Amino acid sequence: MRRLMGHLAQFSSLSKQGELLCTQGVAYLLQNPDARKRFGDHISKAVGRTVNSNLTWRAEVRQKDGARPDLEGCTADGKLVVKIEAKLGAAFGEGQLSSYLGDLQESSESGLLLVLVPLHRAAEMTASVSIAFALTGNGPWQLGDTSDFSVAVIYWEEVLVALGAVRSEPFRGDLAQFEAMYRVLKGYDIEPLRSVSELLAWREREEVFVNLVDRVTRRLAQQSRVLPMGHEKDPNDYQRRYVCRPLGAEQPCFSVGVRDPFAGHKTPIWLRFHRVTPKFSVIRERLVASGFSQRLIESGGHIWIQLDVPLNADGERLVDSLVKQAERVIEVAYQPL
Fold it and tell me: What is the DSSP track for 253-265?
C-alpha cells in the first residue's frame, strides 16, 4: 500500500494546494475502517446527532452545478449523508456553502453540512457560516423547526485527536506524516528568528512574514468580515490587509503589512493608518498625544507604527506578540468619541 506522502505527491505543490492536500489526505486516512469509526463518532459527538460511523468518504466529487465539496460521506447503498468543506486559510467562495447545502437537500431527505477549520479560525468561520445562512449563535444549527438538515463547524485539531486513538500500523505512521504536513500548511511551524541579522534578511523568508500578517489580521478582525490581502508597489512594496473597526458613526481602517523597514528600524511588519481613512485626523491626534508619539513615522501623509518581531519565538508566540502590540495601538486610536 502506498504511504501517505507518496499518495499526496500527485496533487501538485504543497505550498499552493494546501487545502486540496489536506482533503485528499483525510480521504486517504479514512480508508482505514477504525479511522472511519473514530471520525464518525467524533462528528456525532460534535454535532449532537448520530452519524453513521462506517460511511464511504470521497474527495472532490463534482455536483450537478459543477461545484466540488472537499469531502462527501455516503452510506453503503450510496445515500449521501454528509458534505464537508475544509479550510486552512482561505475564505468561502461566493455562494459556496449554499451550493453544497442545496445539492445535499436535493439528494437526501436528511443530512449534515460541516465546515472543517483550524481552531484559531473558530470565531471568524463560525461568524461566516452564520451569516451565510442567516443563523444565530455558535451552532450546530438545525435548518428550520422541522428540517432534518444541520450545519456545524468542526476543527482540524479535534479531528486529529480523534484519529489518534487508532493504534494500528501503518496508520499511525501515515497520521504522523499528515499532522506534520497540516502544521506546516496552516502556518504554525515557523522557525524562530535567532538574530537581528536574520530579521534584516527577511526577504529571504518573505512568505513567512506574509503568513504572519495574514494570521495577525485575522485575529484583529475578530468576528467581522476578513478583507483580502493587498499589495502596493508604489512608492514602497507593501503587502497588507486592512481591518476596519467602528469609531462613532464611521469605520476607520488600519492595515498591517510587510515592507522594507524605515531608516533606523529593523522590523519589516508595520501598522498603518492611511491618510484618507475616516477620522484620520482624530486618530492621528490621539496617537501623537499618547505614549506612541516617539514611535510614529509620518510618510506619504500616512501614520506608520512598527510592530516588533520577537526573536527566538515560535509561530504561536510571534502571532500573540504582534496581536498584542497592535491591540495597544487600537485601544488608543479607537477610544469612543
Answer: EEEEEE-PPPTT-
